[in-house]
Amino acid sequence: MGVHIAQHSRTLSHSRHPCSQDLATMSKAKRAGLAENGDGGMMGVDESALASAIGNGEDLAPFIRAAFENGKPETLIHQLKYFVKKKEVEIEDLCKLHYSEFIRAVDELRYVLVDADELKSGLAEENRQLQEVGDTLLRMLDALIQSHGTKKNIMQAIDSLKTCTSVVDLCMRVNEHVMNDSYYPALKALDIMERDFMPVLPARALRQLLERQIPVCRAHIERKVNKEFNDWLVHIRSASREIGQLSIGQASSARQREEDLRGRQRQAEEQSRSGSKELVYMLEMEDLDEDDSQLKFDLTPVYRAYHINTCLGMQDQFREYYFKNRQLQLNSDLQISTTQSFLESHQSYFAQLAGFFIVEDRVLRSAGGLMTSARTEQLWESAISKVTIVMEDQFSRMQDANHLLLVKDYVSLLGATLRRYGYQVGPLLEVLDTMRDKYHELLLADCRYRINDVLANDKSERMMMRKEYEYNMNVLAFHLQSVDVMPAFPYIAPFSATVPDCCRIVRSFIEDSVSFLAYGGHIDYYDLVKRYLDKLLVTVLNEALLRLVRSPILGVSHAMQIAANMTVLETACDYFAQHAAKLCGIPTRLVEGPHGALSAQSVLRNSQAVAHDTMIKLVKSKVDEVMNSTLNINWSPDDPPQGANDYLNDVYIYLQTIAETSQEILPPTAFYKVISGVLEHISRRIMETFLSEDVKRFNIYAVMGIETDLTILESFADDKYRTSVQDRVPMAQPLKSFLAEARQTVNLFMATQPDLYLNPVIRERNYGALNPKNIILIGEKFKDLPEKMFGGGRGGRVVAKKKLIDALIKRLKNEA
């Protein structure tokens, strides 16, 4: 082929091609045309800029726009035509320049055409052979493609079967979960089927079946869960009472432990104050909070129902359903039983309430939003308003203090129980506070009845105790002992059985009052207890004793025993105050001394004065009965007396009896008051006898008889003063000084110089108790001895007593 191309090239080089002449002619013509147009075509756009833009392939729009804006598009057209002609000339020149190479290229192209035909024939043969081989391969390829299609279909069928198998397995698991009451896994399986398998499930019939059955299964689960929840509602209502009772029992135990701890603290404090050297220090590690693990109740149905309904997207409806049902249960629980009295049913009533709200607290804290604090508070406020109305109504109907206390104790335990769970129990305590006065009025009425009964059955005899336990129970228990040494038995107390019986009543009143006021709305309730205690002692006990004192049939011994009992009861007031303080948790040191004394103590002290006055009055009345016989005295005897007058024997015996009895049972001050009052009354009665119109005349022998009587009485007075008064009653005058008026009168009439009475100094010293008017009246009755002389005793000189007395009386009348 190369040879042929070379030969053909040489042939072209020696011969001129016909078209070469034509090209030369065209080139000349064009150059001539360009020369003719000359400069006329360059009168518009810059030719170099236009040529550069065309050469670079740039957009000619700016040139065209500028030509039209200038109104000379023809000029641009001429320029373009000129540029074309110019390029054609350049092309012709170029062709002329490479003419020989072009001829050679054409020759070579001819040889190439020959070779191309040969190559075409070879390619056709190769193609025929390739087609023969390719037919077999194509048939095999078609078979392969068909096999791949079959395989794909089989794989799709396998995948579909696997999907259906998984769905069927899920359905079986759902049925198994439902049968085993495992509702949450069942719902999760249903969600997986609905979310993951339903969109890609190939079996239409199975998909349609699932579309129908999945809602049915969910509805079945919902019904079963709600049925379990409804069964739980029924069960928890009956279990709430037991829950409340157990929780209230725990509160009661905690209260008892607290009281025991306070008791040990008080005991340790008293030992410390008493200076005991053997003190036991003990640290007790004790958990005072009750373990709520004992409050076992199952909330699983609630958790399950709420969780399942949440999974079903029905949590709001279930919350409302739960709240309404529990609200209905609460309203039913707050209804008062019509078959039992409130006293019999109050414990179960309040236990049911406590159990309800304990359950609600657990639900609030652990059910994950089923109940909110606001709704729980709504239930509590509704319940507390109804309960307070019920309590006020029932308390207003109660007429027994013990019944009211029983209910109050349980209500306070209910408050303590629910306070641990965060409920506001203030309204409950406020109701108890409003019942405080009524309770104490009922308690006072009961104590009044019991005290009146005790006083009515009192035998007014000193109490005898034969055994030590009796002494401990009746004396030491109320701090009534006068000495710390155990007495010998049998022991006769200065008081009657009324005193320990009344002390027991007062002590029970204190304990009941503290029980009512404790664990209520008052933290420091000692002042309230003290006020009610004063009211008991003043309006009940003191008035009952005063009624006895003022009884018209009261005897001396009875009055004396009442006075003695009052003295002991006054002493017991210190014990009452300390006992109240102890029960209230107040340190004993705070109630010791005058500032902590009960006001009833002074009232009882004043009542003692009334009793003493009544007793003295009765004793004086008895003395009057005995001394009425003084009118039978011979006031003008002819001989000196050989002893005391007859009446004095009875008076002395009676005085001894009164003194011995009062000395044993009355305090020294009371004994002093009684004996001094009686002696003063005897002295007054002697003076009244002298002044009586029944005594017309008396002589010196009669005065000597009265002097003997006074000597005996003064001996009695000195003895009692020395043994019972001197060291026991501060600032006490000698008892015989209360006989001063009678003694000074007798001394005056027996004096050898009665006119010394006129001396102010002597009168003040020796006759200060005498009234001159009485001396005048008595002196006028004095007469001299018949035919006998009265011996003055000084040097045997005899003086007429009558004349001396008459002279004294005359002087006194002149002074008057």
UniProtKB/TrEMBL annotation:
Region: Disordered, residue numbers: 247-275
Biased composition (Basic and acidic residues): 255-275
Residue ranges constituting the Exocyst complex subunit EXOC6/Sec15 C-terminal domain according to the UniProt record: 427-781
Subcellular location: Cytoplasm, Cytosol
InterPro entries to which the protein is assigned, alphabetical: EXOC6/Sec15, EXOC6/Sec15_C, EXOC6/Sec15_C_dom1, EXOC6_Sec15_N, EXOC6PINT-1/Sec15/Tip20_C_dom2
Domain of life: Eukaryota
GO cellular component, one term: exocyst
Keywords carried by this UniProt record: Coiled coil, Cytoplasm, Exocytosis, Transport
Residue intervals of the Exocyst complex component EXOC6/Sec15 N-terminal domain: 79-247
Protein family: Belongs to the SEC15 family.
Functional note: Component of the exocyst complex involved in the docking of exocytic vesicles with fusion sites on the plasma membrane during regulated or polarized secretion. Involved in polarized cell growth and organ morphogenesis. During cytokinesis, involved in cell plate initiation, cell plate maturation and formation of new primary cell wall.
Name of the protein described by the UniProt record: Exocyst complex component
Protein's organism: Physcomitrium patens (Spreading-leaved earth moss)
